[in-house]
Amino acid sequence: MEVVLFYIAASIALITSILVITRTTASHxxxxxxxxxxxIAVIFYLLGAPFAAALxxxxxxxxxxxxxxxxxxxxxxxxxxxxxxxxWLEPRxxxxxxxxxxxxxxxxxxxxxxxxxxxxxxxVSAKEVGERLFTTYLLGVELAGFLLLAALVGSYxxxxxxxxxxxxxxx
Amino acid sequence: MEVGFxxxxxxxxxxxxxxxVLVWWERRLLAFLQDRLGxxxxxxxxxxxxxxxxxxxxxxxxxxxxxxxRVVFTLAPVAIVAAMLMGFAIVPFAPGWxxxxxxxxxxxxxxxxxxxxYGVLLAGLASNNKYSLLGGxxxxxxxxxxxxxxxxxxxxVVILTGSFxxxxxxxxxxxxxxxxxxxxxxxxxxxxxxxxxxRAPFDLPEAEHELVAGFHTEYSxxxxxxxxxxxxxxxxxxxxxxxxxxxxxxxxxxxxxxxIWFSLKTGLFICFFVLLRxxxxxxxxxxxxxxxxxxxxxxxxxxxxxxxxxxxxxxx
Amino acid sequence: xxxxIAVPIDIVLVLAAALFLIGFTGVLVRRNVIFLLMSLExxxxxxxxxxxxAGARWIEPDGQIMYMFILSLAAAExxxxxxxxxxxxxxxxxxxxxxxxxxxx
Amino acid sequence: MISQLVSLWKVFLHLFASxxxxxxxxxxxxxxxxxxxxxxxxxxxxxxxxxxxxDPDGEERCVAxxxxxxxxxxxxxxxxxxxxxxxxxxxEFFRINFSRCIMCGMCEEACPTYAIQLTPDFEMCEYDRxxxxxxxxxxxxxxxxxxxxxxxxxxAGKTISGKNKGEAQNESPPVDVHSLLx
Amino acid sequence: MATIVVDGVEFEVDEGQNLLHACLSQGLELxxxxxxxSLGSVGACRQCAVIQYADADDTRGRLTMACMTPAKDGTRxxxxxxxxxxxxxxxxxxxxxxxxHDCPVCEEGGECHLQDMTVMxxxxxxxxxxxxxxxxxxxxxxxxNHEMNRCITCYRCVRFYNDYAGGTDLQAFGSRDRMYFxxxxxxxxxxxFSGNLIEVCxxxxxxxxxxxESYTRKWDLSSAPSICAGCAVxxxxxVSERYGRLKRVHNRYHGELNGYFLCDRGRFGAGFVNSTxxxxxxxxxxxxxxxxxxxxxxxxxxxxxxIRQGDVVGIGSPRASLETNVALKTLVGEAQFCTGxxxxxxxxxDLIIQTQRATxxxxxxxxxxxxxxxxxxxxxxxxNTAPRVALALRQTVRNRALNLAGEAGIPQWQDAGVSSHAxxxxxxxxxxxxxxxxxxxxxxxxxxxxxxxxxxxxxAIAACIGEASGSEPGFVRKAAAALRSAxxxxxxxxxxxxxxxxxxxxxxxxxxxxxxxxxxxxxxxAPEANSFGSGLIGGGLDMNAALQRVASGxxxxxxxxxxxxxxxxxxxRVEQALCTVENLVVLDSLDTPTASLASLVFPAATFAESTxxxxxxxxxxxxxxxxxxxxxxxxxSWRWLAQAATDAGRDDLGWRHVDDVLEAxxxxxxxxxxxxxxxxAGYLGSSLCKTPRETPRFSGRTxxxxxxxxxxxxxxxxxxxxxxxxxxxxxxxQPSALLPFVWAPGWNSNQSVFKFQQExxxxxxxxxxxxxxxASGSIGTMPARSAxxxxxxxxxxxGFRLIPVQAIFxxxxxxxxxxxxxxxxxxxxxxxxxxxxxRLGAAQGMGVSCSVLGATxxxxxxxxxxxxxxxxxVGFTGAxxxxxxxxxxxxxxxxxxxxxxxxxxxxxxx
Lengths: 171, 316, 105, 182, 910
Prior knowledge:
The complex is a heteropentamer.
Chain A: H1 2-22, H2 26-46, H3 50-75, H4 79-88, H5 91-112, H6 126-133, H7 138-170
Helix pairs in contact in A: 1-2, 2-3
Chain B: H1 5-33, H2 48-59, H3 70-87, H4 105-127, H5 130-153, H6 155-161, H7 166-171, H8 183-196, H9 208-211, H10 221-246, H11 258-279, H12 285-315
Helix pairs in contact in B: 1-2, 1-10, 1-11, 2-10, 3-4, 3-10, 4-5, 5-8, 5-12, 6-12, 8-10, 10-11
Chain E: E1 2-6, E2 9-13, H1 19-25, E3 49-53, E4 62-65, E5 76-78, H2 82-97, H3 113-121, E6 132-134, E7 144-146, H4 156-164, E8 171-173, E9 180-182, H5 196-200, E10 206-208, H6 209-213, E11 222-227, E12 236-242, E13 245-251, H7 264-268, E14 282-287, E15 290-294, H8 296-309, E16 312-315, H9 322-332, E17 337-338, H10 343-358, H11 366-370, E18 374-378, H12 382-385, H13 387-408, H14 415-422, E19 429-433, E20 445-448, H15 451-466, H16 474-485, E21 489-494, H17 500-515, E22 521-525, H18 531-537, H19 543-551, E23 557-561, H20 571-580, E24 583-588, H21 593-597, E25 600-603, E26 612-615, E27 620-624, H22 637-647, H23 658-667, E28 691-692, E29 723-724, E30 771-772, E31 800-805, H24 819-824, E32 829-832, H25 834-840, E33 847-850, E34 855-861, E35 869-873, E36 887-888, E37 891-893
Parallel strand pairs in E: 1-5, 16-17, 16-23, 18-19, 18-21, 19-20, 21-22, 23-24, 24-25, 28-29, 31-35, 32-34
Antiparallel strand pairs in E: 1-2, 3-4, 3-5, 7-10, 8-9, 11-12, 12-13, 14-15, 14-25, 26-27, 27-30, 31-36, 32-35, 33-34, 33-37
Helix pairs in contact in E: 8-22, 9-22, 9-23, 10-17, 10-18, 13-14, 15-16, 15-17, 19-20
């Protein structure tokens, strides 16, 4: 019966993902993306990765997407932006890429289909993840830390220049 | 995975009623703290006030501004209340009195508080009003910021307990309530909790003096009521979590049942929230941010470092 | 020990592939940087899903660890990406990614 | 930070302080307040309901000089001068529209005879606005109000019966015009 | 022009003036009391002190009185120097030492020149602790209150009253700080211009008694520019209102007409507006003296039905506005319209118009009158029929002193110098009249005779002017010689004796002067405020013809607009006509004998409640504006008529506003000028630019009507005029025809009038209002001497011949219903020669009854009266209308009790 939960979550994830790339309003697209992420968090939980599920909600949906929304609010996109999006989303723009990706999709389905195995049905607890993370993958953690530091510095740099330019504009 | 389905209905009803009572109780207590009387005209001690407020809110014109994003505008207050109610799912009121005893209970709480941001954010965005937008922006930055410290501050508790499970955390405090070893964590969590609930003094997203009513400027009627209920629910939830994490949850001398102990402690913290509102002025926005990043972050990191070191030393 | 369910692994992988390709299509089709970044998020999330399902297949935490790395990558990417979005908006007053092709020469 | 905690503590202590609120009008006495604290103390200079007072000799003080009317920022005073057989000026009618009055006290300031005075009575609500129009018979009281000894007619050099020329304060008797003395 | 330096700033000023005049005309604030543009300077009050410097190097200077120092070129003075300021403050402080503490009960408060000057000099506190000097007051009659304690000894009152107006019963008594201004005993101030003391006195010594009875401060009065309806001069007035009642009439400066002064009839005669006799509703007579109140619409419907039936005769009125007369004339048609003047009046007015057009002589304005240097008054008692002309004539003769002073190099404003240099020398004034008049004291020679003989006298003068010398009696020769040698001879005559020959004689004198190469002026006084207006409009019927036509029964409806027919013809004739006609419609403001006979009565608005136009003796059309909205159904007569005519299907009277009526008036011959008289309702376009009738400090707006309705009504919008019924609007730089009151910052009293003049004492700002309808220049022929039937006087046995005698208080219909004028006027009287009185057995204080007139008259004996003739006061009860011709029998009435003269009442008021 719980498999059904998985299928429901999976279809929600699929549908909302499609909606994300077809919306013209950024905020609506973001809401769908968040729903999609929540659905995937459910899938994670069902697959026995509760820690990943929690992280998906806390970090992905709760922090990264907020950042997105924050920027969307700052940009204050109006109806003109929506109209522009609609212009950009003409069929001649999306039909070709969609057909190509569809072909790609069927190729992948063909490759992946017939892998008989099921998942284990056993959850991997947060404790195990933590232990492995700070032993085997310590270097990875350090690297991820550097990456984040670099992103911090980079985004600060971008934002700072932006702010200064803004101030000059106003003043 | 045990789910206490029977608990759902009483909990939802109880939480809603609690929020309703809190409407009255906050005004009353606030008044006493300010040497006033507060609402006292309706019913004994003015308890009828909450019914009156409820009737007023129900019968008020539920207006959606024509310039607003209709769907999002309607969904936002629902999101606020839903996230908060979900948060109650992992609270252990007494031994066995919980909806779900998740292994990652604490993470679930964090996840729910982080989802609650969306209600506020979307409300601000969908209102299409400059005050609402500014309120939304403020709450986004504030809540994302304070979520970091909130998460980090309770890691000390997790280290001490070795689990994210709420019931285990409570049981781990049988000898000593965690607010003694984790006093720094408690302080940070308390402050972050206030900020997450955007209660005074950290109610900058709705600061009346600057932003009319912040993100809920355009709300009226039952939608407004939901926003307010969401706020009171978050007060109750934060108090309940503080009690669970740092004050031994249901634990207490035997002469009272555990649920009473839990309720008493929670009520005390709710009153403390009201006291804060009565006493502390609202900081400036940049002060709020620098408090977070320049004071609370080092404190939590220090707390985490010391706790980890002590635990390692005790084990080693 | 928390329980989980057993799902045919190929279905999950197909789901991951589908999500990835949806994100990919988004990257191809959209010109607005915000939507591009969102599509990228979908793609990374799909990768994460693939890792997690692999971890679930072998009852190993490595999948979730890789997912965490992807998460940090996504965070970093979003931070820089949104910074760029703001810059773009400041310079061109719109968010068309084509306008950012100044290095073409 | 310490100051925040101190203020928290101080505010908390107010929980045990007595309330300033007076349960007006249902209770004019609060159970823990001092027994004397029936109503809040209103100073004599409180600017409440306007009255017209009388001279120490019991006659109307108002001489219908119109200064209160002209100084009134909301123009809520209207009156008409008339004169009695004694030569005293008095208002034929004196009307204050209290639904407009803002109790600013300018009329009291302007009054040269201390006739118009504001009292500490503020209980003058009505369900019907028309009842807020006070005519002279509603305004006139049988007393001297705040300035018990002042009598304009004893100061002013205008004659009324009972006070001839030269009999007011600080006046010398009338000049004999027909006198040839230098 | 002279250049003077005041506080280092150069000003171009008029050289002939004093420094005070010069400074005020430059807008500099310099306090003063005793100076008055019409009275000149005497330097009595020491208030206008300035420092005068000898030259640019002089830094000390010396203190001089600005009003006594000529504005010579290069004069250097300082107003702001501390010494001068301190001096002026001290002067005020000394004045205030004895000033009573009674501003709140002073009628001058709020428009007091003393208050203004005290504020201007900065004196705020009484330092002197000694006792105040006091005075007893006097009873001065029904017009004035006396409050001597307030006096500041500026001498303006006696200078005006004695020197300017020729009064004798107000004097300055005493010495040093005990100066007393009053009468020797209590009693009525006799001069006809005593009311001006209210405005002349800079403080509250003389105040308006009727106004004081229902006193309102100046700031609370809503006022409008108006025209006096008392006589044919048409003095400009401010009429003020509060609480729906007319409060007072004040002088409105007009450079050519009334200047600074009004007569007492004009000032106190408007009280009839508040009368209890006012008709306030449409009434339909059901029985004798019993009227049913009708709704306005119903009344109009009834009138419309009468108009629809036809056979309508209309009688207008010389006391109604041009608008009303033209409305009635348009309604009934010229052939059915009578101007409303009596037949005698009308023929006289026509004669006057004909005469005035035939001569090239200008009709003089009053300022022209004052510039004449020889005057002949022929048969007219101007002091009683057009009082303001008499005041002007006093200045005419006094101006000899100015001419002499000019020759001697004395500045004209040096009042004391001018009069002492003249030593009482006056310009020649010759008066030929029936009876001695109030201005005989300034006459060079007098002649008293019956009217026709006076006409003979006039023709004799005309003949004498042409001859080099003659053998005529002394008066004629002297008058002719004086007129012949004058530069600007002036002839004054009029209608008061109802004798055509007198007017013809005046015309003959003017013609003779013209042919002698002079530029004479001819002033002919008409009987009423709008007599010339009525005369210019004209009608197809004269009064007798109209009454005859009505009495013959051929007329169904008679419409009478604001006229009491009983005053226009003999009683029997009127009664016969009014009782014959089927429908008698009367529109009037007051209940008159005519109105009480009417079958339908409409309430007409008075001059204070409506807007309209009067034409004065110089054919100057002048606009009066409604001051307040009339109560109840009262409306202007033309509105009733136009509404009824429109309802009756007429489309030529579809007028909505007074401007529409004026359009119709302007279409009549000679009337083209009426539209230019004053701005129309669209003046300055926006309703925001209307001139407010209320002052900027108007008080009590939210309480005035709160007893009726607490919800303040919307301010009523005046669509008819450029004035508004509120405080809001543009009260600045409007033409003087629209000036509703005078007030300037710091100048609350009427002394602020100089801020509304082009130059001080000159024309009003924006030009003196009014338009003369008849241009000067000779058109038509001078009427020849008509053959008048000479009849001798009678005697006790045969009966007496009656001569009409006018009285300033009582003869005029409207002002004689004003309470203070009633109190001031005497009972109806007859004037006998001593011989006749003796023969009749009558003496002063007895009564004489006249069966023809049906009334009893008080007996007055006058030696100037010719035997066989009797002067009868007209306009009083029993002699309202035309006096009958022929010999009238009189008998002593044994039952006569003299009505106690209210003036004998002496009330000690301290």
